[in-house]
Amino acid sequence: MDTWRGVVPLTLPVMMGYLPLGAVFGVLWVDAGLSWYWAPLMSVLVYAGALQYLAVGMLAAGIGWIDLAVAALLVNFRHLFYGLSLYHLLPKGALGRPYFIFGITDETYSLLSASGQVKDSKTALLVTLFNQGYWVLGTLAGVLLARGLPPGLQGLDFALTALFTVLAVEQIRAKKDWGAVALGLLAAAVAGVWVREYFLLAASLMLVLVLLAWPEAKREAAHV
After folding, report:
1. More confident residue, 181 or 29
2. Which DSSP category does 175 fall into?
3. Could you tell me which residues come within 8 angstroms of residue 12 by beta carbon, excluding any fewer than 6 positions away?
């Protein structure tokens, strides 16, 4: 792959999602009465999609930093497993390695794991960088747009849920692993009934434990 020319078309689907999603985040941030300049700074220094949406309401309500830190741990705990499965793409540079670990989001992970076009760490690093760039640009656009929109708009935060749904559908279409789909639905159902307060963390842990015990998964790991 011609690295720069290849990364741009590869990341276009994420761009189409991140520009409007970042803009919605910027609008929600300003609409919540928070200082506008923290929105782009958060997209640069935190860059955690779903957590940023969650943080808008928590900060606007005056939630303390400790509570926000705990929420961040629970929401982003799944990234630990993302990193383990992308270890073969981990850059070796002193700057590239920590940034790659920092920059893995749900959408970037989906692109790196499902596209089949990313074979080396340099391309993976550029994909990560481009995707964050789209998010930051979207956030800046949202902050600017917020000044011309009426306050109290409803339903904007559903945009993130819609993107996750699209990503899930694309992963299913690409992999056609119906066993994984069934496991995911079962884990979601169990977590939704028994541990609603920690739904995402519980569902993720159940899936990981099942996969670690799955004989086929062990055989595949041994050949990697």
Report:
1. 29
2. H
3. none
